[in-house]
Amino acid sequence: MKWFRWSSARTRRCVQLSFLVLFLAAFLATRPLPGQDPPGWAKLFFWFDPLLLVTTFVAAHALAGFALLALVTVGITLLLGRVFCGWACPLGTIHDIAGRLIHGKKSPAAANRYSPWQKAKYYVLVGMLAAGLFGAHWITIFDPLVLLFRTLTVTVFPAVQWAVEEASAAIYHADPGIGPVRVTSLTEPAYRAFRDNLRVVEKQAFLATGGIAAFFITIVALNAYRRRWWCRYVCPLGAFLGILAWRPLLRRKVASDSCTQCELCGMNCHGAATSDKAQLWRPSECLGCLNCTDACRRGSLGFRWIWPWERQENVARVDLSRRGMLASAVGGITLLGLCRATPQGRARVYNPELIRPPGARPEPDFLARCTACGLCMKVCPTGGLQPSWFEAGLEGLWTPRLVPKIGYCSYDCNRCGLVCPTEAIRPMPLEEKRQVRLGLAVFDTTRCIPYAYGRDCMVCEEHCPIPEKAIYFLEAEVTTRDGEVRRIKQPKVDPSKCIGCGVCENVCVFRDKSAIRVTSANESRHPANEAVPAWEEPYGY
Question: How far apart are CA 333 and CA 122, in angstroms?
Fold first, then answer.
């Protein structure tokens, strides 16, 4: 077999940037457009993610849609090693950019030598997969594709939107210019293009932004300590691909007679796949960046095709101890047990504030599938889907929930189910989705204007989207402070009609705390949480 070697740095960077642009395009493609379903290719990167495929199968015993495309990534890894991490992963590209800005072209040799701590990601993977056998999908919130999409959705894009809106508004009101020429002649068309083609919800904002942003900033900043720190020590997808790449067909070969062990290859190795002896190579840590071949001044390094059953000297495998793997598995199962030791985790009680999107599966099955990727939040046209903090317990961290005060569930929208890559939210036709109950609206009579203040108010009833109206009125007599008797209309909720969409809570005239609020009671996905059977007529009417 012939050796081959080429200058790959520019080629790899172009490929990396191309995949990053494609990822951003998929992100922007989820913008909801009136009368249009989100494009299926918006889930493209998630379809090719083998960690999502395996974890969903282990935890939920199910496969979704085109998820089997992840086998393509598996096949490429078996052939070429972890090239997905080095060439295609968009989060890896961001780490590469951060590392280059911090360290320049080269890193100190000591910083790029292999560390035994790089085994940590494999033990984390083993522990989380063990928990997955009992229905836990928690590891996927650290999946690099999920992590980046969620961060873009919840923090980066809203920040960009805020900056564009505030800057354009400031320029519009200041109306600066020179003579008859105004800056607004440039900024206003740009703002309108952004508003019409990129913006999802006006003044969009998300809860839990601080935690998500802090986590992302931390892992990027750690590139100052070790280049691609996340990829080396923590990334669960990298660990999974590393196991598959323990003996790839494409392997590195060193010509020992010409190698001077100058360590230039180690200084340029992004995955720390070499040790202090440059001839030792760890394929499970190699990102396939080919920086080592470019750096070698003597041409002593190259890659060649070798059959998987052929042994090769100076190639190290992933050396995981049985005791460490057993401890990791026990630790993962123990963590899951702690997460489910709460009354809510055992379905003894239901959190009234945990209102899931329409089509969400029963909570255990939902958590066994949901990756907290943020696709459903990105596509929600009202901005009502928000990342959970602890409303669903630690196991449900950053998973979607509806917050009606921020945005309601549109009666004419079923996009969240169409974009969910693991079908934690079931895809449903619009007519079926309209019948799903998310919760039940209840009045706070100490705040509702007709009850507490003796005045008519019909805002909630006017905005109720149900054709037959889930909110109706009964006339009642009230006596004013001056002794005057008035007849007013007091609103009621018909539980047989209410679907818990949250429109009433969203439009209530009380902006601090609505006089009508939606709780998770009567949700379709949990018959045990059906407080007022929807098939029964309201008592006394």
Answer: 16
